[in-house]
Design a protein that fits this description.
The protein is mostly helical. The chain has one domain. It is built from eleven helices and no strands. The chain is elongated. The N and C termini lie far apart (51 Å).
Length: 220
């Protein structure tokens, strides 16, 4: 993994100061209105269409978020954690007001890439994708009006962090990939006095989230 990718991974991990705060409902879509069970056909990869993105936009967002949080051997990235699925579901529900923001942002992104490299973002090699993302982050990518390049970068980065570290009920953090990455134990049925006094990283399995708790709840 390149130095730039390692730095980006470290930055995104560091941005989550306490994974539990990212998992709180105040930062995320309403779980009651937006769960994986309510969207059984939602995708976790770049192929096909989800609940909001068409196939091309889905592939672009999947590639973009993977460059923000690249996977490595033994270390899950955005694709592994289902970040695309999280963003897709959010834009179909609680973040619906950002649909045009994403449409315009993705269109401007591809226009910039075609002007600069004669190819859309998804067809660029990783080095050029990184260069494009850096230009967006620094506000140096021309052709962006609304959203601006930095606004688009910041929003996708924020949603990538949410998709990595939110409770899996929202469609991301697949198999608790993000929580495992930062050592967050998730919801435990009980913490023993020894657990509360232990200064070492908490590693006891299993880790549970809202979705698994809902599955155990009695039906009426």
């Amino acid at each position: 993994m390149s130095k730039r990718r390692a730095t980006r991974r470290a930055f995104l991990k560091g941005a989550v100061v306490g994974a539990g705060s990212v998992a709180s409902a105040g930062l995320l879509p309403d779980a009651s209105a937006q769960t994986v069970e309510q969207h059984p056909d939602a995708h976790a990869g770049g192929a096909g269409s989800g609940t909001f993105f068409n196939a091309h936009d889905a592939a672009t967002v999947a590639a973009f978020t993977e460059r923000l949080m690249p996977g490595a051997p033994g270390k899950p990235g955005a694709r592994d954690a289902g970040v695309l699925n999280y963003i897709d579901l959010a834009l179909s529900g609680a973040y619906a007001e950002l649909q045009e923001f994403y449409r315009r942002g993705l269109s401007q992104l591809d226009a910039y890439c075609r002007k600069t490299y004669n190819e859309p973002f998804v067809r660029l090699d990783s080095a050029r994708q990184d260069a494009v993302i850096t230009a967006l982050e620094q506000g140096k990518a021309d052709g962006f009006t609304w959203p601006t390049a930095q606004e688009f970068f910041n929003t996708v980065r924020t949603h990538t962090i949410e998709g990595l570290f939110a409770d899996p009920v929202y469609g991301g953090n697949k198999d608790f990939a993000g929580w495992r990455l930062v050592g967050f134990p998730g919801g435990q049925a009980v913490y023993t006095p020894a657990d509360l006094q232990n200064r070492q990283a908490f590693t006891r399995a299993p880790m549970t989230g809202l979705q698994s708790q809902a599955a155990k709840a009695p039906t009426t």
